[in-house]
Every structure is written in structure tokens, then in C-alpha cells.
Amino acid sequence: MDLGITGKRALVLASSRGLGLGIATALAREGVHVLLCGRNGERLAENCKAINAEGRGKADWVWADLSDDDFIENITKAVREKLGGLDILVNNTGGPTPGTSEDMSADKLETFFQTMVLRVITLTNTFLPELKTQGWGRILTVASSGVIEPIANLALSNTLRGALVGWNKTLATEVAGNGITANLILPGRIHTDRIDELDGANAKRQGKSVDEVRAASIKSIPAGRLGTVEEFGAVGAFLCSTQAAYVTGSMIRVDGGAAKSL
Questions:
Q1: What's the burial of 125, exposed, middle or buried (CB within 10 Å: 0-12/13-18/19+)?
Q2: How far apart are CA 175 and CA 125, in angstroms?
Q3: Per-residue confidence (pLDDT) for residue 202, from 0 to 100
Q4: What SUPFAM superfamilies is this protein classified in (predicted)?
């Protein structure tokens, strides 16, 4: 299927590895000019080299840290200089530290709210006037399956990503008439470095081996395995496509059927 986005321009946050890189790669394979960003310049440069070697879309990169006060200004400047404008915004952030509700100190809440919620909303608002003028835009925000079925020992993530649900739904209704869609994509257990880190933390908390924790989690997934970054990226690319113009205000699960909610 031709997704109809050849020549579009996309900014993908936190795309030096994992889920962000998966979406950026999938978009580039559809002919999109993608701007990768993150805190590891060497890795970003290698990713761009690999994407550009495929000869479909085009990739550039910029060093960016969501926790920096100048993040919005710097990333906006990079979009203008490297892309010349924007059609697709993929909001993606790193996850917070594991822990229970009692572990959510005021300092932790404030710190991660800045990077996981405030920066996402502010950046989106920065580009909205341009998308409205164009009459076409895609806003895709990576959240977590924890927003529909809270994940044990991830209280901070469940709380902050949950805030994005109300924001996204409100935004989607406000901009649908401008040809702009806004959706959340909810990863379940997609095999990334983050999953390895969380399994390690859970193993320590439960007094079990990482292999035991991993086996138990896979047993709870109807598909019987972890998802791949490529599978996740493909779904993300479709949600940014021309064909997905009537999908907005939605939460799309990519979890192998793991979530037990309706």
C-alpha cells in the first residue's frame, strides 16, 4: 500500500533508538524526509546513514534534550533549517523511573512532567498554526498501554502518560476540521532496551531472574511473544498516512492483545 506521504516532512522525538527510531525508519521508507533527535549524536548519525543508504526517504538529525529549557526553540529552528517546514509530528519521550505510587515524590513528578507532558504539548502548539494553514497534518504521540490498564511498578508513567489521553482527545476534536489528525499509539511489550531495563528492575523487585520475569510476561500476551520495533513502526507510519485521515482522537494498541480492557 502506498501511504501517500512521499515528500512529507516529519519530526520524530527521541528517535536515536527504540520506538522512535522504528517510526522514523518506517516513515522514511514511505519517502518521508525525517528529522531524528535525541541525546546521542553518534547513534543519530549512524541511524541517518542507514536510512539514507536505503535511498527511499531522507534523514537528518539534531542533538536535542527534552529537559533543556531551550528545547522548543532549538528544535523549532532545526525543523526550519533542515526540513523547511513540518507535516508530521511524532511526539515520543523516554519513560520515567519505575516505582510505586508512594515513590512519586514532588520532585520526580515535576521533573518528568516537564519532559513527558509539558514539552509535548508546547511543541505541538508551536507547530499547530503551520499545520492549520497547510490544511494537512499528522500528530502522533507515543504513550503506553498503561493508560488503559495500569502497569505494576510504573505508577509515574501511568500517571503522566494518562494526562496525554485527555489532551489528545481534546486536541483531536479541535483540529479535525483543519485536516489534522491527532492519535495516541500505545505500545505493549515491544522488545527494546527499555523493556530490558524494566524486566531487570522487576526481576530485582521480585527476587527472580530476568529470564523468569520475561517468560511470565510473554505468557500473559495472547500473541505469545514480544512485539518488534518494525511492527510498531509500521503501525505508526500508517497513522501518519493519507489513508488514515478518518482516524483521529484514537488510542491504537500495539500489544499482541495483552490489554484486558474492552
A1: exposed
A2: 11
A3: 81
A4: NAD(P)-binding Rossmann-fold domains
CA distances from 258 to 57, 89, 137, 145, 228 (A): 33, 27, 31, 9, 15
Please give the domain boundaries of the chain with CATH numbers for all domains: 9-190+233-253 (3.40.50.720), 191-226 (no CATH)
Chain segment 140-172, per-residue pLDDT in tens: 999 999 999 999 889 999 999 999 999 999 999
In this prediction the pTM is: 0.94
